[in-house]
Each structure stands twice: as structure tokens, then as C-alpha cells.
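Below: protein 1.
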Amino acid sequence: MIKKTVKEINDKIQKGRAVILTAEEVSELSKSNTPSEIIKKVDVVTTATFGPMCSSGAFINFGHSDPPIRMQNVTLNNVEAYAGLAAVDSYIGATQVSASNPKYGGAHVIEDLINGKDIALKATSPGTDCYPRKEIKTTINKNNVNEIFLFNPRNSYQNYPVATNSADKLINTYMGNLLPHFGNATYSTSGELSPLLNDPDMKTIGIGTRIFLGGTEGYVSWYGTQFHTSKPKNKAGIPLSNGATLAVIGNLKEMSGEYIKAAYFENYGVSIFIGIGIPIPIISEEIARAVSIRNENIETTICDYSIPDHPQIGITNYRELQSGKIIIKGREVRTASMSSLFKARQIADELKRRLKENKFLLTEPVQMFPQNTSLNSLDIRGEK
């Protein structure tokens, strides 16, 4: 049985001899090649996704004023940022909304910073002996602050359920507007291009994995929140919903507005689209088999979002979803993607180009992710 190491593959990348395909290309190759043949022919497979990822944000160190201030209340373009860190450190969450404009929020501040725009900073403090200043109003941008790094606690969901609506009225959700009586269904994964569907057991992805994040190099910093690896799987080994997530980090100053986009969802709120690409090293036949996954083999659950606990009402696959229609309870239902397959393909191609030009190298995880994890739910009974 053939095996490779990440070091061997990196050596081939540096010498310009590595064979690199996108996940869609290797899926096509798998129609005429076995995993044992694919590992002989392919060294790296690039995967990608570009979709709304609400659990995102950025840490900013503003630098000290003269006289200095210990910031306790901070707004950026009238969007509240969390200041309970240190004197001039703050965290701006993507979904935090402006006090004056509900359609503008932290995601827009992040996108504006990436695009080099000036941001209005306001901060107050009660004042201390060592930080006597009580108020500051100024403008910042990515060039005049010390550090800005994107740190997203939950990105790149492994597999997300399809959303639909059986109720008599339209409902507004983070999965878009859902029409009554199963008038439509929305989904938010890039199918056979999606990173964690190409390595479902995370044999090559872990803490320390180098990734493409928002146009620059980033890293997997931890397993993401709501990391759930004990979900039921189909015959192809793919979780039927949710599953694993990633916490990721990268230098916002080096990112591109091409791959980070703010968004507003009607009657729901602000979110942010994040572009992520992950290279999968083909180190074993097991990985070669995993990256050969095709849309028709990637199943996911269909959930009714008109009911609070979003019960499962069916199962479909990504070939059907991307065709533009699925069957729910015997009727044909139109589908629409919340993520952009066009942008995911663009990211996979860009990552492939960087690897071919020796501008991106693979890393081995410093620690693998935990297995058989489950989720806790908040006790909402409360006190009477």
C-alpha cells in the first residue's frame, strides 16, 4: 500500500514537480481511477468554501494615546466592540449591529478595514492613575493600528442541513427567506469542494494546518465551537448534518475584500461571508478515497425551520441540490445556495496556483482533533 509524507510532498512542491488538482478535478478523475491509482498520480487536492460564517470577528490593538487611556467602552463606526481585554485591545464581532443602522455591523467594519477605509473610533474610560485619559475620538485604519487579526471561532461547517418552511407564512432566517408551504429550500455548503467533506475524519486537518483565509495564509488554531463528530454518517462516511467546525486565524492586514464580504439578511441581521481554502495532502489510499467523493454521495438532512427545533423531514444529496430542485414530501421544491460555488471554485483554483508556484507549502498538524464529541444544550427552563 502506497504512502507519502507531507515532507515528501513539500519537496515536490518546491521542485515544481507536485501534481495538484482541485477537489472537483479529482472527483472527475475518480470516475476512471481507483484510490491506489490516484495516490500515484496526485499529491495535493485543493478544497474551498465561501459562505456566511456568523461566528467570526477580529482582534485589534489600537496603540496607546498620549495621555494613555484604558478603554472600557469602544465603538467602531458606531458598532460596539468588546473591550474587556487590556487597555487598547478590542474584539469586533461580525454580527454586532450598529446602534444607528441595523443593516451595518461588525462584518462591515471588518470589510471596510480590509479595504483600507478609515473607521471612526470612540472610546471612554473612568480614568486611572496610570491611564488618566477618559475619552478619545479618532479614526483608525489597517495601516495606523498595531495589529488586526481575524479570529473566527466557528467556520467551515462540515455539512449543514437544508432549510425549508412548511408554515403558512414566509420566515426570515440566517438561511435566507424561506417561502411558505415548502416554496423553496436553501443550503450552504460547496459540496464536493468543501474542505471537511474531503477529509471527513480529519486525518490531515488539525491544529496548525496552514490554510487560505480571506486571500492570505491563515491557520487552523483550534477545533471550532459546536464541534460535533458523533453525528450519524452515510455509507460514504459523510456526516448527515453539521459535524465538525474549525477555529481559524489570519492577518487581516493581508486579506482581500475579494474573499471577505459583509452581508445583511432581511429581518435577521448582519453576517459575513468568509473564503477558506484547505489543501489536502494525498498521503494514503484512505485520503485518496476520501477526496474522490462526488456530490451524489454527499447526503444531508432537510430541516423544517418553521418549527423551533428544526426537525428533520427528509434527506437529499448535493447533486440534487445543485440541480436546482429537490423532492420534499412528494413535491418538487426549488433550491438555492447561500454559499457561492463560483467563489469556492475561484479559491480552489487560486490555492492550486499558489502551490504550483511554490508560494504555499503544506503543514502537518501539531495536534489532531478530538473524536466522538457531542453537544450540550442550554437549560432554558429557568426560574419561575
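Below: protein 2.
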Amino acid sequence: MKQEPYWVTVGVPVYNSEKFIKRCISSILNQTYQNIEVIIVDDGSTDNSLKLINELKENYKGCKKVKIFTKCNEGLSKTRNYIINKSTCDFIYFMDSDDWIENDTIEKLVNIQCKYNCDIVKINYFINYNETKSIKAKQWNENKVIKVKEDRKNIIEDILFGNIVSYTWTMMIRKEKILSDLLFEDCHQEDKIFLIKILSNIDTMHFSSENLYHYYINPNGIMHKHDFEYYLNQDFTLHEMINNIIEKFYNNDSELHRVNNSMTSYFIERNLYNIYKTKGKDKLFDVYNKIKNDWNKIQKNVDYNCLKKSNYAIKKDYYIKLWEKEDFANIIKHYDKENKFENLKMKIKQLIKKY
């Protein structure tokens, strides 16, 4: 390809990733696009991650700039912010240390940027349970450009309800658009918060239909270690954070009220879906119906049109039918105490009381 003037920072936060880091970094060093600054930040790893990274740099004979930094453990969000501060390029693209990219991923991202001059270029991705079996995760089937300022509220709602994935590794971002008040928050679903925040400073986004990133499902990862109650509590905290961010985009309380209650419903129903995926069956229908019916009594103005395209929200009794067909073990032990349910109701009421 004709070499473009754009330089791209590919940033990789690393924490105890010795099993996967060679695969990740090698996929960056083997990119067909050459104007790449690779910034790898070891976030206080206690395994051999840093040793392996240094070996990769020493053996690399190409022309890409490779920079390695180390710091004490502070978590993913602060490490990404550290990378943003160290970046010297026009665009920035983040990866997770257990994932990898196609050899021409950055080249294709830059080509799209050169053609459409967008602030964010988003891509589709593969889901991998191993290195050889890839499942295409299709978020959109056609290439399109969105003018953010003209459609910001719809974009926000699509992000809130999972119709637009917010994974940071699905997008290359014009660095100058990431201002000091638009950095990553140290919280649950930090990608979603970051994307919603940065929309305030974005003019255009391009959605590419190509699958260019490999998202590895690590069974030992942090996302697979917690239960329904943990994620529900995290979602309520996230709800309040998002409300503080999006309220400036809504002109009246009724609109914000509708979105907030629909968002709460989405969080609850998404967590129930996670129960369906990961837990058991005994008394599952009673538990599910108890939660859903009580939620229906206290929710107000949920707009299910907001949820109809969601990949997770419960559509009528669709997932109940799925549960009836599956043979699951006991679930009631994960959600059988009355005080847990009362606590759920209390939190929901607190959220909607001010409206």
C-alpha cells in the first residue's frame, strides 16, 4: 500500500499475561502497516510477562517503534490512561494482552480513516476459545458512517443496551479527541463509560463490517469469577455514573426518566440472562418470575423499544423457553435469601425515586 502519514499507537496493558503475551505482541509486530508505535505497559506483573516482552523487543528486527514501561499495579483503566499520556501518534488503538489481531488490521483501519476522515473507526471481531476456532461476532453487516452530533442520543441508547459494543479494542480513536476529562474511569464496564463520554467530543464514526480482532475467551479471566449479585451491584453503580454523564444530552426529565428506567430493566434482565448461561435449574422459574414480577410492579415507563434489539435483554418469555429445554443444576442457592431480594427492590426504588 502507499504509505500514509498517519502514525498509530497500539497500546497494550499487561498484567500476568505470560501465557498469551507472545501471541498478542507478535500480531502487532507482524502488521503490514509500518507507522506503528507499540506501547506496552507492565502493570506490576508477578509472573514472567515482562521478561517475555523484553525478549520480543530484543529479537525484533523491524522498523516499528517498541516502547516498554513498567509501573506498580493500578488496574486496567489507569494503565490505559498511562498509555494515552505516553502516546505520540495521530491515532490510538488498544488491545488486551490475551487477544490478537489480523496481520492487516491496522492497515485497514488507516485506509478507512484516509477515505472517510472519521474520529473513530470501529470494527467487528472474532470470538476465540482457542487459536484455531474463530466465531464471527457481527455487530453490523455493512460499512457506514455516522454523524455523531446529529444522532448522539440514539447512539448512546444503542451503547447502553448493547446494540453497539463498547469494547475499546473495536475502535481506533483520533488521539486529539481524548481530552483530560474523557479518560478511562476505574469502574465496572469502563469501556462503556469511556465511549459514552468521548461522544461529547466526536463528530463522525465509521463502522466497518470486517472482522479484524480476535477476542480470546479466557476461562480463568476476572469476568468469569463473580456471581449474579456481584454484577448486579456493579451495574447499579454503573447506572448512576452513566446517568450523570448522559443527562446533559437530554432536554427534558421525561426522556431521561425513560432511558434510566429502561437501562435499569436492561441491567436486571441481562443479569438474569447470565444466570441462565452460568447457573442451574432447580426452582429457576420461581426465582426468575419472582424477580421479574416484582420488578414489573415498581418500574415506571420502561420503553421496551429501547430493548428490542438488545442481545441480552429478555424478550417476552424467550429465555424461559430456552431454560425449559436445558438441564441445569441448582440455582436457588445463588439467589434464595429474602433479604437479597429486598435489597434489590430497595436499590431499584432508590434509583427511580428521584424521578
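Confidence is low (pLDDT under 50) at residues 311-341, 351-355.
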